[in-house]
Amino acid sequence: MPDYWDFRVAEAVAVMRQVQAGADPAALDHAIGLLRQTVAATAHGHPNRAIHLQNLSSALMLRFTFTGLRADIDAAVDAGLATVAQATRGDPRLAQYRHQLNRIQVERIRLFGLPDDLDAAIAVLHEVGAEPDLQPVQRSMLAESLGAALHRRFLRDHDPGDLDAAIAFGRTAVAHAPDRLQALCELGNTLCTRIQVQESLDDINEATDLIRQALAAVSPDDAARAALWFNLSFALRTRYVHTDDAADLAAAVDAARDAVAAISSDRGDRGSYLVNLAALLHMRADLLGGATDLDEAIALGREALIGGVDGQESQTHQYHLAAALITRFAALGRFADLDEALNLLDGAAQTISPDKPVDRAAAVSALSIGLRIRFECDGTLQDLARSVDLAREAAACPLPPAHRGMMLANLCANLRLSAMHTGALTEIDEAVTAGREATVLLRAPSSKAAKAMANLGIALRTRFELAGALGDLDDALAKLQAALSAVPAGHPDRTRWTSHLAITYQIRHARLGELADLNRAIRNGADAIAATPVRHYDRPPMLDQAATALLTRFDLTADPADLHRALEYLTEAITTSPPSHPQRASYVGNLSIARRLQFEHRGRTSDLDDAIKLGREACRTVGPQHSIRPVTLIDLCEALQLRFERTGQAVDLDDAVRTGEQAVAQAPAHHPERAAALYSLGLARRLRFRHAARRQDADAATQAWREAADTVTGAVEIRLLAAYQRAQLAASSPHEPWSAVADGYATAVRLLPLLAWHGTARVSQQRTLANWPTLANDAAACVLAAADPGWALELLEQGRTVLWTQLLNARADRAALGVAAPQLAAALERIRDELDRTTGVVPTQASGS
User: Fold this and answer.
1) Whole-angstrom distance, CA of residue 365 vs CA of residue 397
2) pTM summary value
3) Measured distance CA(464)–CA(381) in Å, rounded
4) How far apart are CA 386 and CA 367, in angstroms?
5) Cβ distance 120 to 149 under 8 Å?
6) Nearest to residue 338, comparing CAs of 395, 288, 312, 376?
7) pLDDT (tens digit, 9 = 90+) per residue, 205-250?
8) Kindly report the CA angle at 714 between 708 and 716, in degrees rounded to 5?
9) Tens-place pLDDT, residues 364-409
10) What is the C-alpha separation between 460 and 416, in angstroms, rounded?
């Protein structure tokens, strides 16, 4: 028959149930008082004492959920420990007591960090799990608790074995636990943790499925729904990063909205839910270009910070808000957004601890990107140097492969930009190495892999500009084309990559003279400009690139429409860039070229004066080691020569020679622009020789052109022109023997096959050779004058049979290759057929073909 204390316990349990149903939590004080009295009145060893202790522990834990007081959860653990100690070994409720105790211990560890309790809880659970007489339900309950405890210990110690074991126990609990909902939630949460470490697509798919099952089972008013929606949004976002499936991103945004809607406004972790939604909206804005999503992301980020969260969580919130602000700055050009972002990132990077490597690397990398962007806008070299240091720091963090790949892709971009301004080959080599590693680590197809591929392509092109290896240029084109083919039409980086593809085509045209490359550069450049907002910080360099391509085509075709459009582009680029912009010198220098071409087109001296004034400004503002400095000096040298020819002012001619010498000094051996610098200097020296009759000027011109013709990294057309000018100068001098004239012409003839190289279309080869119709005849005539008829015949045949010789070489005997490597021989056959394909004819056959 029930005694007095049984009635008191029943009264306490009834109060607990009423509170769980929504009654005033203050009533729990009375219930806990009744239970404490009951425990005190029940003798040790009494069979009901363990039950009373367990009820007391439950009541204390229930009150803790309302008060959050450490004293309540500590008392709940103490009562649970007493419960387990009081129960006899054969008590059928022992597993239940231990299960409840462990849950309380794990929650206390989660909130207050007690590693000794965690290890003790795991040890107890292993001990209980080893008992042979456990019922299946008891064993599944233990599996659930042990999985949760191992998960928490992994978060503390980062032992992968704990995480794998936690997932194995969690799967057992899901299969057999009576409270399957709790088991689903815990296993889904644990899988989300492993996803952050390993990013296994199988884990992502399993977590997504489990969380959706839990959401289907949980009641609409259950507080657990918020965490479930949060975890589902995380899993879907991670899957989107791996697959680029826009449906996953849309579903992740919806799940994040449901999570925010499900969490109460007074929850301390509400900020994390807001930032999660903000990050997803930012990702969608990146994908689709939606200003509404981006503005909402920024508003949510600010709301999260207003909540007053401290410590690590606050720094993560700052990072996400800053990233969205940088994206909006890129789209709208509001410097207030950029400055706010950099202030936030500085704070986050300084305070996120190294034991959060993914968060710290993301914050540090984002700060490096922000500093790089500010450098691109105002040219502060300290920003560039710091951005490189920060990118190296981020890449050195211990990260999962995909995260490390993204950090390396950013390092590649920063080092490339630095190398452009310092001319350091070590930096550009490091950039290419980082870019190649990034493309290996980031799985294709994905937008992240495409970005790494594009950054590598741009770095390879820059290395060609600094070192002149043609293989880098071809590789750069392939990488940029691959990146563009991997992303949809609306991808936010597509316009920038298209612009870089245009630059690369333009550079290859300058090296090889293929008109199709120039036309591709102009088309791609126009596409990039049309897709870029007027205030976007990427627009001025796009305008500059397109203008230079148009100027090159105007020089070839004399179409005034090209010149007019180039002038419009360059004027906009200059007027929309601040005076300290790091690329302003390039814009000003190219406007100088445009004015010079305009002078040549309509003959107004004022245009030439403007060209020289602009050229001097460009030379003053460009850095001494910047990759474009030699080109800027070359252009000024040529403009000064033009004005001397127009006005006869010797000061311009002397200035042209000095500027040409500076250009040569700025382009060391193997620099791609050294041949052009030497050629321009030779022209200035020859002009002064004709004006002042100084023999040393003629000798210096001859030496400059001889070296230019022999500079293998130079554009072939420049090299051939240098050899030709050297021959012409020698022929006009009474001091030079015919052998010197013949040597210059012979060098020019030997360069003809390179000028019309086999990799260009046949019609382009024929058009190129048509520009040199008498070269072989002139060379032969000079050699005959030097009394060497055999050499004359050789040069004549060499100049007249360029294309025929290429055809014969392509049909060389491949029998041995066919035996040794039949697949390679077949591939060579296909390549030969492609090279032999003609796409048109030139009406007038060049005599040198």
Assistant:
1) 11
2) 0.57
3) 23
4) 9
5) no
6) 376
7) 888 888 888 888 888 877 778 888 888 888 888 888 777 788 888 9
8) 90
9) 888 898 888 888 776 677 888 999 999 999 999 888 888 899 999 9
10) 9
